[in-house]
Amino acid sequence: MTAQNRPGTQPGALLRLTLPTGARTARRRSDTT
């Protein structure tokens, strides 16, 4: 049960962190271009 919970929680946290980071990178690219 712990193994199933771990993989489910890891991707969720990664996605939440990747979302804000991706938006910031896209904005930086738009500003630089």
Description:
- There is one protein chain.
- With 33 residues, the protein is an all-alpha fold.
- 94% of the residues lie in helices and 0% in strands.
- The protein has one helix spanning 2-32.
- It starts with a helix and ends with a helix.
- The relative contact order is 0.11.
- The mean pLDDT is 63.
Sum this structure up briefly.
Residues 1-33 are annotated as: Disordered. With 33 residues, the protein is mostly helical. Helices cover 94% and strands 0% of the residues.
Outline, from the CA principal axes?
rod-shaped
Strand percentage, roughly?
under 5%
Q: Could you tell me the mean pLDDT?
A: 63
Give a quick account of the main beta sheet: strands, pairing sense, barrel closure: none
Number of strands: 0
Q: Could you estimate the helical fraction of the residues in percent? A: over 70%
Structural class: mainly alpha
| First-to-last CA distance | 48 Å
Radius of gyration: 14 Å
Low-confidence stretches: none
The SSE order reads H
Count of alpha/pi helices: 1
Region (Disordered): 1-33
